[in-house]
Amino acid sequence: SSLDHCHHLVSCWTGLDLISVILWFIHRIVLTMAFRGSLCSPFRCPGPQTCEISISFHPVFELIFKLAIANAFSAHNMADFQVQTVATTPFKDQKPGTSGLRKRVKVFREGYYLHNFVQSVFNALPSKELAGATLVVGGDGRFWNKEAIQIIIKMAAGNGVGKLIIGQNGVFSTPAVSAIIRARNAYGGIILTASHNPGGEDNDFGIKYNMSNGGPAPESVTNAIYDYTVKITEFKTADFADVDLSKIAVHQYKNFIVEVIDSVDDYLNLLRTIFDFDALKQLLGRPDFKFIYDSMNGVTGPYCERIFVKELGAPADSTFRSVPLPDFGGAHPDPNLTYAEELVEKVLHSDNYEFGAASDGDGDRNMVLGKRFFVTPSDSVAVIAANASAVPYFKGNLKGVSRSMPTGAALDRVAQKLNLEFFEVPTGWKFFGNLMDAGRIQVCGEESFGTGSDHIREKDGIWAVLCWLSILASRNAPGKPMVTVEQIVKDHWATYGRNFFTRYDYENCETEGANKMMDLLKGLLASPDIKGKKLGNYTVATADDFEYTDPIDGSVSKNQGIRFIFSDGSRLIFRLSGTGSSGATIRIYIDQYEPSVEKHNQDTQAALKDLIQVALEVSQIEKFTGRNAPTVIT
């Protein structure tokens, strides 16, 4: 008979019991007698713990071999563990914000702070669905990431989860987690990140739960999680040793598996189905196109080196700050004109690069720059939507678009002109998820440097950059003069008009003063004569505290930001951010439409000067915060 069964198995040799050894040698002896020299290659043991076996054998003896291996697993790899129930007391400050729970590292390390929140996540999920389920777990590599993952592994085992898929070294970008949940049909995922917030022992940590669609948990789930945090009395965990996350491997326990996988593979495979990599290679290979990417010592470093350098052929020096660091190199990993100062100097203040980009700590945000030209996030999503045909994934498939309420209204103009369905939603990526799942939108974005599509259910920094490179590739035929980022945006303005947009951030303000300012504005909303009231040279057409009713499930989200909309379509918006870990961050958004091409080249701050002054005066922000200037201007 032919030897046609080849099995490659990796199992643990240490700890095989006597029965396993006897079964193994019976199998070897029978093979020797039956095939007289047609033995398999001998098993090779590269180390004391793992034994790689490569063997060919007759089907008659396959069952014997499988029994030996199965018995070996049950004797060692599938070792049982004890579930422990540990008493705890609630913390009163574990209400998730717009993107999970974010606090200082020292808060998460206090007592059972993390344990309580993780157990509350498990408690909020239906127990019958959680039992035996697969979850994806990973983080952006910030300080305390590895230690937190070990806690989550043991608590998942203690709560009956069947399998965890974890990135090598505990690292996944947030977009990659969403992609893996969807590709592997996981039940959900736990992401350890504080996104664009600073890292390190004295800075921020965060955690959030994502659903089976790959997107952030909706408010119904985050509210349930919070309800459990205020009444929790115990949590469950398991008593096994820490799992080695440094190597790609499968760790098998009885009724529980931890699979450590390459952090990039699944995400890269998805991108290959979306973009024309050959066209992108051709663009990056042009001698007159120089490209630079700043990973800000966040999680995207390995992704960028793999995608842009190894896959698309960009020079090795096309990426910088590409080593993920627990404290992001002491920098603030937020891709904007203030914190990406080195990139800004390289691209905006020199002629050395045609294109520059940056992403944040966990890889979901992006900033796009052309030579001496900044693309606002509001313009970026509008240009991507208007040029969606440059991306193979979207050809004939763009039916709807959406933006967050504070985002500049450039996308509205594209939707109107291209006859696309349009939605305005509250801040928070979770609000796009239902629309995507229902097939109502394919492209969406928010002014806080977040852009994405329905390929996953998170915003995606690298995806946005690849979209821009695809647009550039489609506009630049080989051998022709370079069509620049600036030209593409100005052509867009000429077609759709320009929305001048800026955002003023006042970070880490005293909470009391910030709340008093918001109360003042709410009082103005309640004024019976607010409609038609003159604020500076602007007449109020409507003013409200934005409320959103989800068109898919009917859920209502209230108090999402104070809006003043003027008779010329200009807007002022005031919000307290939900992504900070301490104090209060006040954001003021100023948006004004300009149809005249002759006025499109104005400086943004100059064009919005009068409207900015109205915002500062009506809010009395200096009085309430003591600040005479914002921390960041976008």
> Could you tell me the radius of gyration in angstroms?
27 Å
Strand content: 15-25%
Q: Kindly, what is the distance between the CA atoms of the first and last residues, rounded to a whole number of angstroms?
A: 73 Å
Q: Helix/strand-derived class?
A: alpha+beta
**Major β-sheet, in short?**
7 strands, mixed
As a percent range, the share of helical residues equals 25-40%
Question: What overall form do the CA principal axes indicate?
Answer: globular
**Strand order, biggest sheet?**
4-8-7-5-6-11-10
Rounded average pLDDT: 88
Counting H and I runs of at least 4 residues, what is the number of helices?
Answer: 21
Q: Which residues sit in consecutive blocks of at least 5 with pLDDT less than 50?
A: 1-18, 30-61, 66-76
Q: Tally of extended strands?
A: 29
